[in-house]
Fold these 3 entries.
Entry 1:
Amino acid sequence: MENRKLKNSELIRKSTEEFKSAEKTPLIVILDNVRSLNNVGSIFRTSDAFLIEKIYLCGITATPPHKDIHKTALGATETVAWEYIEDALELVKKLQEENVQVYAVEQAEDSTFLNAFTPQKGQKCALVFGNEVKGVQQKVVSASDGVLEIPQLGSKHSLNIAVSAGVVLWDVFSKMKALE
């Protein structure tokens, strides 16, 4: 059997208005001092794919509009809700007060491997992704409700942040959909 690639015109895509009014996945993304604008744009695009509720840009993380974010976001900065909050720790505490479970995505003592993590049905989650070199700030890791770690078997023990976000968002998204 031959599988024919679909043309762009055959893909069912939401308009910006349809995206904004669609029911969102109860997931929030927090970018903690992400320095690469291409990574920021890529995470916007991934967040669009999984109908992520909102992205918070913290610390040195650049904000739209910017040509380098736009280059990889391909318009997702127009669909995914976002907000700049300077202090990631203050944001984590505010979200926790709103009954959001916050998980740092990091390599840490007593972390939960992503494959062993199951979100609670009906529980909104926030996922914190950190700086490309330093990761999530220790004070943010310490304040989080838990730490999720992507199991890695190779010699490098690190993934690009945009790749990490894609892996984690897909995994948590698919587990949340399975709980529905």
Entry 2:
Amino acid sequence: MTLGTRLADLARLTLQDPQRAAQALLAEGVPLKARSAGLLLVAILSALLASLQGGGRESLDPFSALMLASPIRAAVFQWLFLAVTVFLVHRVGRAFGGHGRFADALLFVVWLQLVMLGFQVLQMVVLPLSPNIAGLIGLVSFGFYLWLLTVFIAELHGFVSRGMVFLVMVLTALAAGFLLAMVLILFLGPEALMPNV
């Protein structure tokens, strides 16, 4: 079985049965260096797709426009975002009694981002044909991401209640988003978060 076939099978399993997919992913024994390289790779790919998809939009807020104006800048920001996600998945889970390892949190975040890249490519292909359908794909993919991340975090830390995992995940995201907004306003001013019209 080729690597591409194995990845495709694992991606299909991720969407059908994320708990089993998480277990199968851990069983692969991916080296830490490969996980770290994977984080950089998915950050670069995601940034390139985002730049192609949104770089020409005039309705972007100044911060997003600044990020997407340069694929390199977008890749750096995407890597930082993913790295913070790994840190939060690991540390917040541990704070609530979880037993997940940082290396496994890294692996899960990289894998889920890779799966989401498939949705991102599909959305980019559909966008010129039907912006409405492309927008729907974006909403569906976001819903999938929240569901998959919830299941993977529960599996990583050994949590039983996925509802509680989801609640803590949302609250953590809101707190992190608030802190990021405060930093952006502090350095770039309130206009940084307002879309250009």
Entry 3:
Amino acid sequence: MIKIITDSTAYAPTDFLEKHDITVIPLRYLYRDQEFIEGAPGTFGQFFDDFTKTKLFPKTSQPSLELFIEEYNKAIEKGDEVLVFTISSTVSGSNNAANLAKEQCKDPTKVTVFDSLALAQTILGYIMEAVKMRDAGKTVPEIVERIKSLQETSIITFIPDTLEYIFKGGRIGRVTAVLGSILKIRPIVTFKKGILSNKNSFGLQKAMKDLISTIPPEGKLVRIFILHIAKTTLFEQFKENVMNVLKARSDFGKFEIYEGEVGPVVATHAGPAVGLAWSSEPY
């Protein structure tokens, strides 16, 4: 059997994890001079209530090397192969920790560490694909090859409520942030294959329309996640706009649709926001 392990930034629902015997290695974050272990969707409310009031900027920390080793060894002792999905190596040390643990476990040949080059529910989409293939009897190399093909066109993209968090994260300057707020610029922040980029729109409605227009063409979408960070008040309107577009497609019903909550670690990149993540066939 193939044992799937992921770090907490996939933000997989607890019932999904339990149903498919997936283990989560949590990342940690530093906030108000305390270290916290990132939990699962549905447990972030207290953090975000405080985060959105104080605007303090948390710092993230990689997961425990020892915990990775422990979980690898448990699976190996059962005779399983291990397939590990981590947040992109370009933004976190999680992938490095997973690989160091591989070198120190009982049988490194049984462990494959996959760098998602992704954030949040993009990773979850890869895991869902891996579960589907594992349960169909596919091998680890076959699963990895399939996920690599999905990486070509799979992304996560956000519309932040404010430019403040992007400024604090060092991705724009103070002058740009101030002018952007005055001019009502709404950045669309996109993360694809390990690279963060942004494109500006003027006004919320235009930004929503521009973001939704980037959804893969008909016949290519595999699964899509409609996301929020910090339960932003924009979410219900955004979700309605997305669903109206999806329902109008000729391939509606042929791809999976989910709602998702993004947690504290990835929230440091955008602050409160709405967004989309998807897996799609190359096009």
